[in-house]
């Protein structure tokens, strides 16, 4: 990407499109961040949770008497102590859009989670009791004094076995272990398969891994002594939803709960849902009459925070004799873990992204979400897309082998063309509307990726043969991503008496650079310098309504809300200046925070002078409610549909047949996210996503034993890549503006994470083709690569 650093130093407007350095970084890099752990609440107590050591067991008794008598202990709660509080449900995430419900009639079964387990536990790590003490050390000591008698039950960790009629039920109130079921059909796939020239049938598995943010979950709460208002600080990605959930749980009005999303050291979806700890800590602050703080340790984060990715795809592709896909069938099984936390979100994302950028006239997709005795699964950066892209792109590679066509050529023959946009797939999107790709140039994405990857050079190296047992291979993967999920996002702009611009949005930041990119949008919309804009995100007092930063939606929704609010505020500024200066509004120009008459030497007024004055005596102010003395505006942007981003990745790898090591020699990414507000931030977002994707492709895996015990509960076993494992990226981008919003932007926060597993699997398989290796799951650790070589049928 090219960074327009020269323009970023200028002050002549047109902020959108500049690589402005992130204004938040100076504070964060100097150690002046305000994470939950930095918030000092005098007189606070700390919480520590006793978590189940069993994957499935009845709770026969809990004895807390010794813990209550331990030094520094303020209180100990079990399930009986909070039985009067409602069980937790992620209601917004579990909601099925009416259009989707009407057209596909999906099954979505609710599994409310008790705040503390009472009768039985369903996964290792489920909270059974909580200790509140003067500090965490004393709380941890008291946990060891709690006596719990468990009666172990049968354990299910395999989602396919959990579907058997004889399988034990996790939730006795349900007829089986199915949490979600949905199916869709387009055209006549059975007839298409019957008449196809070539058919490939494969089983691909997306393995389980976790977000593992550098900052684990944390929450602090206190009741203000004067107002009685409950203030909560959290690393949440969805502060307004958390506020409403706390209010519901505690029986309070939402206006009496103030949630602040502090600085956040990574979220990636894991902090985008509700957790029982986030409801118990505020309840404790109210009940104990003291501030309460809880910070998750790393073992808790790996075993008790949400997991992701685990899916099984039984996929079939049918093609004609020219390599054009005529039909796709896929049965997708998603391991939900012990509770249905987010309903259709991940399974349906997988369903409606399976076809990717390809033209497929006949489709049959079945999706099942299955309950097992593992930690519950929720969205993680990409949210169902990396899993389904892995299956589809791997199937494309296998079809290319079957037909004797180069993988990039097979893809090129099946891509939707730009002149077909908007393109209707025949599926229903996540909102319940007919799915449509609004814009994009998929063939150009692939052309650029192929050119950068130097396919001919790789093939020439392959013809030379392996060098000292090291084999070279190349892989390709393409994807689309529906971004800008609704239903709305909020932006409020106020001009302060000192002339500064206060922008409050409902979407908090976990590293996306909102204080920079949103300020760029506001500066252009209003006509002021960036450095007079203060951006507040994720504070429920600043904006009473909001959704949050999830689903690649912040820039599309909060950005366009900011743009529209800024344009309306600009109109109010000019109107107020016209009255002050006695000049017609249409003869005034607002630039760099100064409103001036068009003619040279005419009157002018700064924003500070304008906003700092009280209403003039004897001068009537407008009473239309639109151009009053207060210069502010609130906009709730509601997207009319999804803005579809897309990308093509290519990777060249070298595989050592002796050690199983995989080295990435060249990684290419070409993406399209519409208009780019800040190229430098965009590049950082794509790079971060690819780094997490590479982690999943080569290193990270959350492993369970058949007894439901997690075997990767620390970083000694769960391998997270560092910067030294991530190669330099060869990036390029297209700009096809989205017609779905004023700014023409598309989300890109998740895009980089979608394709790495697929592209690296294809490259490793290509490198080891002489051994007959087929890659059907990851991660491609050295031991797994060696096993693939040992068990393959050499060709």
Describe how the helices and strands are arranged:
Layout: H1 5-8, H2 25-29, E1 45-51, E2 57-63, H3 65-68, E3 73-78, H4 91-94, H5 98-104, E4 107-108, E5 120-121, E6 127-133, H6 136-143, E7 147-152, H7 159-162, E8 178-186, H8 189-194, E9 198-206, E10 218-223, E11 230-234, H9 239-250, E12 257-261, H10 276-288, E13 292-295, H11 298-304, E14 311-319, E15 325-337, H12 345-353, E16 363-371, H13 385-403, H14 407-414, E17 423-428, E18 434-437, H15 442-453, H16 455-464, E19 470-483, E20 489-495, E21 501-505, H17 514-526, E22 533-537, H18 554-581, E23 588-591, E24 594-597, E25 604-606, H19 607-611, E26 632-637, E27 643-656, E28 662-672, H20 679-698, E29 729-734, H21 756-767, H22 782-791
Parallel strand pairs: 1-13, 11-12, 15-16, 21-22, 28-29
Antiparallel strand pairs: 1-6, 2-5, 2-7, 3-6, 4-8, 8-16, 9-14, 10-11, 10-13, 14-15, 17-18, 19-27, 20-21, 20-26, 23-24, 24-25, 27-28
Helix pairs in contact: 9-10, 12-13, 13-21, 17-18, 20-21
Describe this structure in words.
- The chain is α+β, with helices and mostly antiparallel strands.
- 28% of the residues lie in helices and 25% in strands.
- It is built from 22 helices and 29 strands.
- The strands form 7 sheets. Strands 3-6-1-13-10-11-12 form a 7-stranded mixed β-sheet, sandwiched between helices. A 6-stranded mixed β-sheet has the order 4-8-16-15-14-9. The chain has a 4-stranded mixed β-sheet with strand order 19-27-28-29, sandwiched between helices.
- β14 and β15 form a beta hairpin.
- The longest helix has 28 residues, at 554-581.
- The chain is globular and about 80 Å long.
- The two termini are 41 Å apart.
């Amino acid at each position: 990407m090219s960074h327009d650093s020269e323009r970023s130093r200028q002050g002549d407007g047109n902020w959108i499109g500049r690589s402005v350095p992130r204004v938040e970084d100076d504070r964060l890099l100097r150690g002046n961040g305000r994470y939950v752990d930095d918030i000092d609440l005098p007189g606070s107590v700390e919480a520590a949770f006793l978590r189940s050591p069993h994957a499935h067991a009845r709770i026969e008794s809990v004895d807390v008497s010794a813990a209550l008598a331990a030094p520094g202990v303020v209180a100990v709660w079990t399930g009986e102590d909070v039985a009067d509080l409602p069980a937790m449900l992620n209601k917004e995430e579990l909601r099925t859009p009416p259009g989707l419900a009407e057209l596909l009639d999906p099954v979505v079964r609710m599994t409310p989670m008790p705040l503390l387990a009472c009768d039985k536990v369903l996964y290792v790590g489920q909270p059974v009791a909580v200790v509140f003490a003067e500090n965490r050390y004393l709380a941890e000591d008291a946990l060891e004094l709690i006596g719990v008698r468990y009666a172990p039950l049968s354990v299910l960790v395999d989602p396919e076995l959990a579907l058997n009629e004889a399988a034990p039920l996790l939730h006795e109130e349900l007829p089986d272990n199915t949490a979600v079921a949905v199916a869709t059909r387009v055209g006549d796939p059975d007839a298409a398969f019957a008449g196809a020239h070539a058919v490939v049938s494969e089983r691909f598995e997306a393995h389980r891994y976790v977000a593992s943010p550098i900052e684990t979950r944390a929450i602090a709460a206190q009741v203000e002594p004067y107002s009685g208002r409950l203030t909560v600080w959290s690393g949440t990605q969805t502060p307004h939803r958390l506020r409403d959930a706390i209010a519901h749980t505690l029986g309070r009005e939402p206006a009496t709960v103030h949630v602040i999303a502090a600085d956040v050291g990574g979220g990636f979806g894991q902090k985008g849902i509700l957790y029982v700890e986030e409801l118990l800590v505020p309840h404790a602050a109210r009940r104990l009459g003291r501030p309460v703080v809880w910070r998750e340790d790393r073992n808790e984060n790996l075993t008790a925070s949400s997991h992701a990715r685990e899916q099984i795809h039984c996929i079939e592709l049918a093609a004609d004799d020219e390599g054009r896909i005529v039909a796709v069938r896929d049965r997708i099984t998603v391991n939900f873990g012990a509770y249905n936390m987010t309903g259709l979100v991940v399974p349906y994302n997988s369903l409606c992204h399976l076809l990717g950028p390809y033209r497929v006239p006949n489709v049959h997709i079945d999706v099942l979400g299955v309950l097992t005795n593992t930690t519950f699964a929720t969205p993680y950066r990409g949210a169902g897309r990396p899993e389904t892209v892995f299956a589809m792109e791997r199937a494309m590679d296998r079809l290319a082998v079957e037909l004797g066509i180069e993988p990039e050529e097979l893809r090129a023959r099946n891509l939707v063309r730009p002149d077909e946009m908007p393109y209707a797939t025949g599926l229903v999107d996540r909102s319940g509307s007919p799915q449509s790709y609004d814009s994009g140039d998929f063939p150009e994405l692939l052309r650029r990726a192929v050119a950068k990857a130097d396919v001919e050079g790789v093939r020439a190296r392959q013809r030379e043969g392996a060098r000292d047992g090291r084999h070279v291979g190349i892989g390709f993967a393409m994807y689309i991503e529906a971004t800008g999920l609704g239903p709305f996002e909020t932006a409020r702009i106020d001009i302060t008496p000192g002339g500064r611009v206060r922008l409050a949005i409902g979407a908090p930041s976990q590293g996306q650079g909102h204080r920079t990119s949103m300020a760029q949008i506001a500066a252009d919309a209003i006509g002021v310098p960036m450095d007079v804009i203060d951006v507040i995100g994720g504070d429920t007092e600043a904006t009473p309504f909001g959704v949050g930063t999830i689903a690649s939606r912040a820039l599309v929704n909060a950005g366009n809300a900011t743009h529209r609010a800024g344009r309306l505020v600009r109109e109010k500024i000019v109107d107020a200046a016209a009255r002050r200066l006695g000049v017609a509004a249409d003869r005034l120009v607002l630039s760099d925070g100064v409103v001036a008459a068009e003619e040279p030497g005419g009157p002018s007024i700064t924003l500070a002078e304008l906003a700092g004055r009280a209403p003039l005596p004897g001068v009537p102010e407008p009473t239309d409610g639109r151009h009053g003395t207060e210069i502010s505006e609130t906009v709730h942007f509601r997207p009319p549909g999804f803005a579809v981003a897309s990308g093509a990745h290519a990777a060249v790898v070298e595989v050592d047949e002796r050690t199983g090591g995989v080295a990435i020699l060249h990684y290419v990414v070409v993406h399209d996210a519409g208009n780019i507000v800040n190229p430098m931030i965009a590049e950082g977002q794509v790079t971060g996503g690819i780094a997490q994707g590479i982690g999943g492709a080569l290193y990270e895996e959350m492993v369970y034993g058949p007894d439901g015990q997690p075997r990767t509960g620390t970083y000694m076993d769960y391998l997270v890549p560092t910067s030294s494992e991530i190669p330099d990226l060869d990036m390029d981008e297209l700009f096809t503006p989205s017609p779905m919003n004023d700014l023409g932007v598309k989300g890109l926060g998740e895009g980089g994470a979608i394709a790495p597993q697929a592209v690296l699997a294809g490259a490793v398989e290509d490198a080891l083709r002489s051994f007959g290796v087929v890659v059907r799951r990851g991660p491609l650790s050295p031991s797994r690569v060696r096993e693939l070589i040992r068990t393959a049928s050499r060709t």
